[in-house]
Structures are given as structure tokens and as C-alpha cells.
Amino acid sequence: MSADLSTTSEAMKSSHIVCSVRNLTVTYQTDAGDFPALHNVNLDIQQNQITAVIGESGSGKSTLALAMLNGIALPGRVTGGTISLSQHGDVLALRGKALRRLRGPVVGTVFQASQNAMNPLRRIGKQILDLGRSHGYKDPRILLREAQLLAKKMSMDPDRVLTAYPHQLSGGMRQRLGIIMALVLHPEILLLDEPTTALDLLTQSAVLQIIQSIHRERQLTTLLITHDMGVVAEVADTVVVLYAGRVMEEGRTAAVLRHPGHPYTRALIKAIPRLTGSLDQARPLEGSPPDLTMIPRQGCVFRQRCRYRMALCDNESPSLKQLEDGHLTACHWEGQSDD
Amino acid sequence: MAMANSPLPNQPSVSWRPPSFSTIAWKALTRKPGRMVGLGILLFYILMAIFGPMLYPANLPVNPANIYAPPSWAHPLGTDFEGTDVLALILTGSRYVLYSAGLAAFFTVSIGALLGLVSGYFRGWPETVVMRIADFFLTVPGFPLLVVLSTVWDFGNPVSMGLVLGLTGWAPLARAVRSQTLSLRERGFVEAARGLGLSRAEIIWSEIFPNTAPYVAMHFLLAITGSIYLEVGLFFLGVVPFSTNNWGVMLNLAFSQAGAMYSTRALPYLLSPLFCIMSLTFGIVLFLGAVDEMLNPRLRRV
Amino acid sequence: MIEIRNLNKTFPATKGMLSHGEVHAVRGVSFRLDDAGAISVIGESGCGKTTIGRILAGLEPHTGGDLIFDGVNLNKLPVAVRQPYFRKVQLIHQDPYTALNPAHTIVRTLTSPLMLQAKKHGRDASWIEKRAQELMGLVGLDPRGTFYKYPHQLSGGQRQRIVIARALTVEPSVLVADEAVSMIDVSMRLDILNLLRDLRSRLGIAIVFITHDVASARYIAADGALCVLYQGEIVEYGRTDDLIVHPVHPYTQAMLSAMPVLRGLEEPGPDRYIPPEGMDEDAAAEPSCSFSPRCRWATEQCRTRHPPLISWHGMESTETHYHACFYPEPRRVVATPVQ
Question: What is the ipTM of this complex?
Fold first, then answer.
């Protein structure tokens, strides 16, 4: 009876997982050897949640975004692992038509600088029609009507923005149109790759508000990739901290922010200057962002920048351990943190 | 502040002195075997142009008894309609071809790069003037212009040949360098140089020019092949008086005197200069990639 | 000391239907920066903050108002004689990727301006090399590791340090940092901010910090002034902490509201409000408050009259504090830490 119960709850739990990444390893081949950009990454994306992946440059977060679309190209290669979507199987095995269906109708993507993802010579509305045509819509104008509704919801004048060329719009507008273009195909998963990096804070928070309200309204599953802890704190339900291609910590955002388990996460939070309190609270991260070619092959990848480094860290790479329910961290240090 | 002072423990030690240019050049050359082949071909022809004419008397001997001889030990490439050794003609004719092509490329590149840089950097009237002149040279068909010029200009001298080819050929490069300069002058580093008080000449020469150098150097090599085609073409057409022996003259004579199109006996005479021109072009094309890598730090592999 | 009085900058508008008109990038901006002082200029993109920085560095001529450097009104000097004054103000560009010549090694980047200095002061070549090493140390870089590298071999943070070192070659008295950290990894930003603060305290270099991020504005100019710019005009000006704690202009409040709240660690301010992005930049007809189309408290008066910049005498605020709003009202928009 009890066994039954546990399996049901297990099944229920897993039914909420829309996408699960298992032991994903992506290697880049260079003249100087092969370097893993992602190493045994495990990740579950829960339905109707905003999951954020945070990392510095060189953390492998963009590689992860590409892998989600099965878009790793040479010199990169997926050397192990799977990315399974609940209804579509292993993304990494998709080819041809199924792969085209993945990109857009299944996983809608908003890129870092949407202006670069748009055709500068075509009006936005036309580009949306193109989108419909290339994904086999009989009447692509449905998409245009959808886009008009979304534009209005994002407090933009639909007639103006859909007839405009990308260069005629501000960065914030382009980013919102980028989101619209991802949403008109009704994707199951919304993948946001650094959606606010090039924007002002004021525009950023407007865009984040839109992301949040659309996410709720459409009951989306959202994966947000960013390097900014502030963005994570604003919108994400869960956060995964990536460093040098490995998961350092994951958990509910508020829990991770309040009780960061990994020294790296702590340092990331500490490094943000705040509006109130003493200026000395902010402390810079030591060392420099990970360089793919210099990541140690053995032991903890963060140890060179870590203030809690022990002998153990040099030899043994820490595995993810549960701190509390759903809050995992990969660190050998078990004492109190002094910060 | 302290962070960057302490290099990470297992960072490889970095060299205090940078690799010298010769090291960089050698690496760029040896990274692909084709580049070495290209360099070999280039050196071969350069040596031929320098020493070839020294091996023979100023007037090559004629032998009416032995015209159109097939290749043999005495005449590896056969003889021509006068019985002159074709190999000797190739070797002595190479100097004019290479010397004038080199000069032509030199003039093309120096005029084109300088005018492109100046007009792109200063904008305003210098740009307008230079670009209108460039447009003139771009619209006037170059080859017929040269044919017309040949009536008043002495092409027998390689220097004057090179000068004319340079003066008529700089326009495409000037346009390309100008458009690169237009984009470069808006970059932060040019603005910073202005803010730091560097003179305009310094900004153009040491800030902007190095960024166009790989392109200019490649253009130089391609201008050599272009000039060879043009001058050989002029001689082949026979619009330029044959004051010296060179590959273009050979082609013309093989065609008109020896009737190489109709008979096989003059085939070695026709094919020898053709082969030289083609293999030289081939060598230059092979060598191009190495030049780009030598001058463009972003392409270098450390 | 540098002072700007009633600074104006208009650009001829060349695009669109306004081909005969002008764009007012900067309108009547005045402020003063003491020796070794600090002022942060905040605003959205397009508010004219970059233009002010470029005018101060002599990279752009102003079209109205006075520039007074060390008591000398530059308007009264012939253009050719102004250069030495402008040289004392060095601009740090936003983008460290284009600010360094990709064809030059770091040492060459530093030596070409140093050569000018050497010529001016009659120094020899050994001084140049020594000085270059000194400057590298000053910005926290190890000359051994970076001297002979090319910009593309360095990280964003390292490049920005080189840019700062290059600016220091002419021994400036003012550094204008235009969004100097916005293109650098969040984790590395604090390092650059610390470097600027350090240069200010050690070398007495005054800082004009131009940004859209209020927190870094505060970090640099905590003991200085904050100047909030909207569409080329100052809408609020005052001591930094004063303005952050008691912002009275709705736009300042919006900028402060836009700061991401670290949920779990912070509680959002009770009056936090993010206005919608401006639909059309030239929508506000003159004369009016230029922020009125986006302001939730705007009245008829705001839409028909232009509010002057006047001083604010309310609450605890005793220091200089100016605002340009008909209905100034301190609101609590800044997040507070939770215990």
C-alpha cells in the first residue's frame, strides 16, 4: 500500500517534469585538445515554472541553451547524455522534420539581442508570416492576429510595431517582439537566452514583468538563461547555478538566495552592489571567469577561486548533495560560512 | 584590487616576450603544407627573375637550322621560329614580367591604401574628390584604356609599365580601404586615440592602417597576378612594341608567327609561358592564407 | 574642478519626416564636480547622458551653455587651445571590445600615448616602459601576463582595466566612465567599480559615472551627487543617498523601482512601481513635463506646463536637492533587507 503510494507520488512528480537533462556532456574540440563545456549536467524543468540557469561567461549556459534546441555544431559535440522532453523523446536524437518542429513549435526561443535574430530588411509582421509559412500553417495570418493581441498586452501599438522594420524600434520593443515571435507558435517550453542583457534596468524590469505575466497566463514552462542574479531573483521559481559546465547548486530561488549552499553562489550574491546598507557589504568574486582551456580535469572546478578550499577539493570532484528538500549543492565544505 | 595580481595557481606561465614576427610568419607558413608550396613557387620565380637573365647573353643566339625543335636535352623546351632556346626565352623574359608586375602592385597598393585611408578618415571634400576620381577609373574599362595609352606611352620599360598599371588600378582598393576606414574610425579605440591627443597622421597610420593591413597585403599579391595578366595581354595583342623579350611577347609570337593554334610543333613554345603564368598565380593563391594569418593577430594560433 | 552651466546639445535630425528639425540631446544641464569628487549621471538609453560625457571629454562640441574647467570658461578660448583642457578629462567607453585596437598588443596600446607624454616632458624610452608597467599595476593587472597579449586574448574585465590604464597615461584629473561595466560579466563588475573608487581615493581623480544602474551609481558616488536625466534634462539632482532614500520625482522613483529585488533577502519597497515604456519618444508636446506621458500622477498642469528645476525642502532632507516636478512626493520604492 505504502509502496503503491510512493510510486504514485513519484509518477505524479515526474509527470510535472517537462524536460529532463541527464548526464549531458558537450565537448569542444580544439587544436590544444578537447574541453568539456558541459560535464554530466542533470537538470529537470518543471511544468509551469520559471527555471533559471545562472552562470558567468564560460559557464556553459549558452551551450546548454543550444543543446536544448539540438543545435550544437562543430567544433562542439555532444559526447554523452540525453535531453528528454515529456512527449517528444530525446531531443538530441531528433533529425529533419522532427527537429524543425522542436525549434519553434515545441521550444520557443528568445535570443539575447533580438535585433540580431530578426531580418533587418523585412517588416516584423512579414517575418511573423514567414514563421507561420515555414512551420506549415495553412493560414499564417492567424499568427499575425495572435501577435497583435500579444503586442497590445505588452502595451505596444500593434499596427505600428508590426509594420516596422527592426531598426525603427527601441531595444525594449525589439525584445518584446522577440518574445511575441517565440510565443505565436504556442511552444510548450519558452527558452529565454539572456533576454535582458542589452537593456536598461527600467526596460529590463518591464520585460521581466511581461515574461512573468505571459508565463502565468499561458501556463508556460520557461527556461531562463542569465548571468544576472537580479534577474533570477525577480522572476525565477527555481535556479540552477552553473560553473565551468557543472551544476554547483540548485533549488527554489528564495531558498538559494537566503541560504546559498555553495561558496560560488554566495560570492555571486555578495558581488551585487545594493541600494541600501553599507557599501562594504558588496564583495567582488576572486579570480576570473572560468576559461574552458584551464578548467582542472580533477577535483572541484571552483577550488581555485574558493576560500574554503581543502585538500579533498584537489582530488575529488564533489557530487550534488541534498541540503533540504529540493535544494542541492556540490561542495565538500560542511562547516559554517563566515560570510 | 588584489584579485588580478595573483595569477591562478595552475595557469601556464606566460612568456614575458612575445614571439617575434619571424616566428609568427614561420608558424603561419608551416601550418598548412600548401602555403610552403606557394612560397616555394614564389621564391622560384623571384630567383628566376633575378638570376635568369644573367645566364644568357643579351642577344640570344638564333639558329635557323633548328627551328621548332622538339624538347631535347639541348633544348628542354624546344626552340622557337628562329631556333632560339625556349627555356632561355622563359628565363630571360621572366624579369620584365615579375619586375613590372611587382611595381604595378606596389603602386596600386600604395596609392589605393593611402587614398582610401585619407578619404575614409577625413570625409568631406577629400573623400568626394578621391571617390569621384576612383569612380572614373572604375567606370572606364581598364584594358582598352591601356591599349589607347600604349600609343603615347613607352611600355618597354618595366618601370613605366608598372607605373601605368598602378595609376589605373588603385581605385578598387581605395574604395575597399575607404569603407573599412569608415567603419574603423567610429570604433572606440580611434576615439580614444583622439582623446589622448594622438595626431591625425598617427591615428591613420598606427591605429587604422594595421587593421586594414591583412586586406591590403592580400590585395598586393592579387594585384601582382592581375598585373601579369594585363601586361601579358597587352603584349599578346601586339599593341605594345616588342622592345624586350618577355612571356607576353612569347605568347604573341607563338600565336602569330609560329601558328601554335594550328600546328603542334610550336606547342612547347606556346605552353611554356602559359604554364609559368598559371603556376605563379597558383603559388600566390596558395600563399595568401599565410599572409592573412601573419598580419591578423586574431587568426594566429598561439 | 569642472563645471557645466546650462549645457545644450542639438543634433540636426536627418532621418524621417523630421528632416528639417533638430534633436535636443541635452537641454540646460548644469552641475559641478569638485577635484577628486564623484557624480553619477543616471538615465535610460537616449536620455543624453552619453552625449554629456562626450562633450566633457572634448569628443563632441556643445551647442550652448558653458564648460568651465578649473575656473577657465572654455567658450572664451579658441578651439585649438581647448585641447589640453579636454585631455584632462578621459572617457572610458562602454564597450571594452571596440575600445582597444585589435591589431595592437597591450604594450603598444599603452606606449603610443606614453610616447607623446615622454616627448612633452623630455623623458627617455626607459621611462615609457617603466610607466607602462606602473600603470598596469595601478589597474591591477600583471604586466608579465598581459603586456604582449592582444585584446582578443583578454576577458572583458581585463580589457576594461587596460582601457582605464590607457586613459591614465595622460594623467587626467577626471575620468568619465560611460556605462563602463554594463558589458562586463556581473560577477566582475564590482572589481571595476572598486578600481574606479580606488583611483579616486589614491590618485584624486574625479569620476563622472554614467549609468542606468542606480546601485553602481551609488557605489561610485556614495559621497557625491546623483543626477537623474530624462530626455536631456535633469529631473532630479542631489546627494546620492539623499536621493535614493527620498526620491521625489516619479522618474527617479521608477529608476529605483527597476532595481531587481533579491526576494528572500529583500522586501520590495511598498511604493514600488514600474511605468510602461514610452510609446513614442516625441509624443510629449511642448511645453509640458517630458515624463508626463509615462507618469501615473500626471495632471493637466504637467501636460501643459514645463516644470522648472527647483530645490526641495521637505522632510529630513537638508542638503541640496533639486527636482523638476509639480507634485514632488517622497515615496518608498527601494527594497529593504529582511532580517
Answer: 0.85
